[in-house]
Design a protein that fits this description.
single chain; 240 residues; 0% strand
Length: 240
């Protein structure tokens, strides 16, 4: 079977799995809602209105991780992977199609979340967002979409390696919401190269760290590539 029909079948799985659709919706809602709350809670002294407008990405990424995790973990339930590999014996081709089927909608939804978050954030911040240029807003929207897609793919790769959605979420959600902040407070420049810290540089007007907006996303992409490579290895080397 060629790549196109494999990709089509993986896309059908995503469309018909209700939990994945809810996860994609949650990406937009969480990102926009928490951006609005952050703007309302601001005391008017924001030094970085761009990040204030995109603050909700910190929570929207949890939904992106859940999306990537759910799509892959569904293959390890009830012998579904055995049926999949019976139809597509080439495991590498199947996993590549799975990654594309995750990455494309995650990118599209991430861009939508970025647009909504920017609009809501600017509306809530009011005059405090007047200093944002169109170029900065565009960079934030594009960066938001790419970052959320990368986090969904990172979760997909880790799930394929661990063969467990619960294990993946138990590792990534606490890391993104708790551990990364703690490490960032005590490790100095090392934290700049964590996948979330590096990728979110694109959502700041300026950066005092070692990475710029696009080099930061590049570091996150390297983490994602490593996770996908590990996941592909796990799929090819282990029994279904």
């Amino acid at each position: 079977m060629t790549f196109a029909p494999v990709l089509h079948s993986e896309w059908i799985k995503i469309r018909t799995l209700r939990s994945t659709l809810w996860a994609l919706l949650a990406v937009v809602l969480a990102t926009a809602a928490f951006s609005a709350l952050a703007g309302l809670d601001s005391d008017g002294t924001d030094s970085d209105p761009l990040f204030a407008a995109f603050f909700g990405v910190t929570f929207g990424q949890a939904a992106a991780v859940a999306f990537g995790t759910t799509v892959v973990s569904s293959e390890f339930k009830g012998g579904a992977l055995r049926l999949t590999l019976a139809a597509v014996p080439h495991r590498g081709r199947w996993f590549a199609a799975k990654a594309v089927a995750i990455g494309v909608p995650a990118l599209a939804v991430g861009l939508l979340a970025g647009l909504v978050s920017l609009a809501v954030g600017q509306a809530v911040l009011g005059d405090r967002a007047s200093g944002l240029s169109p170029a900065e807003g565009l960079r934030g929207v594009v960066g938001c979409g790419v970052y959320l897609a990368l986090m969904a793919l990172l979760a997909a790769g880790l799930t394929a390696l661990l063969r467990s959605g619960v294990a993946t979420l138990s590792i990534l959600i606490p890391f993104l919401l708790i551990v990364s902040f703690v490490v960032g407070g005590v490790s100095g420049g090392i934290a700049d190269f964590l996948p979330d810290k590096a990728g979110q540089v694109v959502l700041h007007e300026t950066s005092d760290g070692a990475l710029g907006p696009w080099t930061g996303l590049g570091v996150t992409a390297l983490w994602t590539a490593a996770a996908l490579a590990a996941g592909a290895w796990g799929v090819r080397r282990r029994d279904a």
